[in-house]
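Late entry, 3-(1H-indol-3-yl)-2-oxopropanoic acid complex.
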Amino acid sequence: MQLFETVREMGHEQVLYCHGKNPDIRAIIAIHDTTLGPAMGATRLYPYINEEAALRDALRLSRGMTYKAACANIPAGGGKAVIIANPEDKTDEMLRAYGRFVESLKGRFITGQDVNITPQDVRTIKQETNYVVGVEEKSGGPAPITALGVFLGIKAAVEFRWQTKNIEGMTVAVQGLGNVGQNLCRHLHENGIKLIVADFSSEKTAEIKHLFGATVVEPDEIYSQNVDIFSPCAMGGIINSQTIPQLQAKIIAGAANNQLDNERLHGQRLVEKDILYCPDYVINAGGIINVYNEMIGYEEDKAFKQVNNIYDTLLAIFNIAQQQSITTNDASKRLADERIMKARINKNQLIAA
Ligand SMILES: NC(=O)C1=CN([C@@H]2O[C@H](COP(=O)(O)OP(=O)(O)OC[C@H]3O[C@@H](n4cnc5c(N)ncnc54)[C@H](O)[C@@H]3O)[C@@H](O)[C@H]2O)C=CC1
Ligand SMILES: O=C(O)C(=O)Cc1c[nH]c2ccccc12
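Prediction complete; structure with ligand written out below:
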């Protein structure tokens, strides 16, 4: 990968390689854009197969955060960090060393809990830096709010697709029963939805089967289920050339980041297959909305209203995509770019004045 070329093309401001021998740590902090505010994005720990895969993930996830904040009208920029490690090798020393790197950015980057990082890990990182959010638990953590946002997104997609507000009796396939997936299943079950679920963890699938009467399938069988909606709530890259031909769902609406393996190619393939795709960084904005509000002083009404906006934002994006014959992914990118461009012009005018 040509690093500077890639970074320039994707529009990143800064990429930090954080490393240390004792404790052993390798992490990448990617700051995509700070026009709207400090770069916000949670930290993921993952045993990437190589460093290029880690960099790619950090670059794409951080750019997604810029779009996410912009579409949700949150005055924050986009960033994301990845720690390259096996979850079993995670140590407090490693997390504290990482916290010192975050602190060195003096608030240009604000982070929290993502995949393979627990609330306790975030508290450990917090021993070294104040630029960590989402652990006060004043608001119950970001996952339940993210799930609520995804649930609202599903309703918006159903309304656009089938002109009905009634989702009762529909079937949803949920991939991944983690913090978000479990909460989403509860909302869906309470609203009369039939569930088909998959997770590598048989404990998690057994629990959701027991609680909500879900049908459990093998992880590689989740794509081909005869369902109305497919909800990816595990990892990214799952909408690709192997999985698209298997899909029977007419709507994709889930929490996972970077769902499209190749945004242009696979976004277009979904249009051709007449599948309505809810852009991931629009539908999964509940988390950033929640932690941002926690940071500025949590007011439940305000946070709730912003999450509810996900519904209207998605409807607006579906309409733009339809009117302009572009993918929903491109429509949401345009919305974000317009907002960022406007802020940039305002900033420059302020500097010039
Ligand atoms: N937690 C939050 O507030 C937010 C989460 N997200 C994204 O949503 C996704 C889920 O987040 P969490 O629930 O917090 O993560 P989590 O780590 O709690 O849960 C992920 C679950 O997916 C399962 N899984 C992994 N690969 C799978 C596969 N191929 N098939 C079936 N199951 C698989 C894992 O076993 C785990 O149970 C992630 O991509 C995350 O980046 C996005 C915005 C906010
Ligand atoms: O939507 C995402 O991918 C996020 O990273 C959201 C998020 C969850 N916890 C956080 C803590 C600080 C900044 C963002 C987040």
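The chain is about 50% helix and 15% strand. Will revisit in the morning.
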